[in-house]
Amino acid sequence: xxxxxxxxxxxxxxxxxxxxxxxxxxxxxxxxxxxxxxxxxxxxxxxxxxxxxxxxxxxxxxxxxxxxxxxxxxxxxxxxxxxxxxxxxxxxxxxxxxxxxxxxxxxxxxxxxxxxxxxxxxxxxxxxxxxxxxxxxxxxxxxxxxxxxxxxxxxxxxxxxxxxxxxxxxxxxxxxxxxxxxxxxxxxxxxxxxxxxxxxxxxxxxxxxxxxxxxxxxxxxxxxxxxxxxxxxxxxxxxxxxxxxxxxxxxxxxxxxxxxxxxxxxxxxxxxxxxxxxxxxxxxxxxxxxxxxxxxxxxxxxxxxxxxxxxxxxxxxxxxxxxxxxxxxxxxxxxxxxxxxxxxxxxxxxxxxxxxxxxxxxxxxxxxxxxxxxxxxxxxxxxxxxxxxxxxxxxxxxxxxxxxxxxxxxxxxxxxxxxxxxxxxxxxxxxxxxxxxxxxxxxxxxxx
Length: 448
What we know:
Elements: H1 2-11, H2 19-42, H3 49-57, H4 66-93, H5 101-111, E1 116-120, H6 122-132, E2 139-143, H7 150-159, H8 165-174, H9 178-185, H10 200-212, H11 215-226, E3 231-234, E4 241-246, E5 251-253, H12 255-260, E6 265-271, H13 279-287, E7 290-293, H14 298-302, H15 309-317, E8 321-325, H16 340-351, E9 358-362, H17 370-375, H18 385-389, E10 394-398, E11 401-403, E12 407-409, H19 411-433
């Protein structure tokens, strides 16, 4: 029952281009009936249908109630008839019946959604994508490829492919049948010589790379097989290593070593020095209505993408809404004792350019799991809003967390905030294009 209700509500969403045609059909039906009645009356014919109907319902219903009842029932029948007619057409075009008419119309609405680029890696990026795919299918996930640990690192060393782990997570998040794909792609072999520790999704991408000949084509074919909403691209097709320099003067190579260190990080770079940006990533940034950095590990998921000069230049030059989603909790070995201001300022320091204009900061600290995180050396990221605003960044403080097994961003809450920011930004940009003055109404971009 709930599933049928959900589909009906989705069918009522604005922007599908269906209700207007139903209204047009209803108006046409009224005019047609009126025209036929006038034509018959002009020739002197009298069917006396009303009198026959009154005789049928006399004593059953008050005669004055027949008009509104018949009008309502007639309208319902018109809507139902057109809906079933459209469903028959869709089933004829898609005989497998995978998507019913409501789903087809809902997907049409998603294809008209904003063009949003999300940049990062790890579980944070996939969390954001999971929420955004309910508002638009024009999504591009630009994913870091510096992971050298676990299954991804082994496949990179043994097969020479780019690490597939973060790519896999994004494909799963954007998949049409997410529950089934998640169970399949996240399945990790626990035994077997050479298989133990590998996830099926990583092996799938490795096999697809062998079949198609390159990693880029493997992602595209995997996206087609999984019927994802949007696309996933690497920030570069070059094989890279992350190098971090610490406050004590030492340095390490590899994402795993960077994230496991306990020293404050003062320098970050990619090796080799001249990394080429992936062309499709640059095009997506250029065409975007919004560019979202994070959420995710600051030094190992977000900043590696900003060490690629062409990506930074495209972001800085873009007129899109540029949003940074600050992490909810500090991360041991990476962001110990760092406030929200420290996160934003480090973005600017590493990128060497203004890569965000808006920061989303969580204002709902966790309660139930706070003690467990404290034992691991993690604390809520302090929201020092005034210091961020001093950088010229607009801050949107909002409750965007989910506290279940872990404390993470809630996909739907976060996506809702992001989409409302984009609504405001696109409307403002359109008013400038038309030469209108800046609207004086309060917007979501003001501090809450």
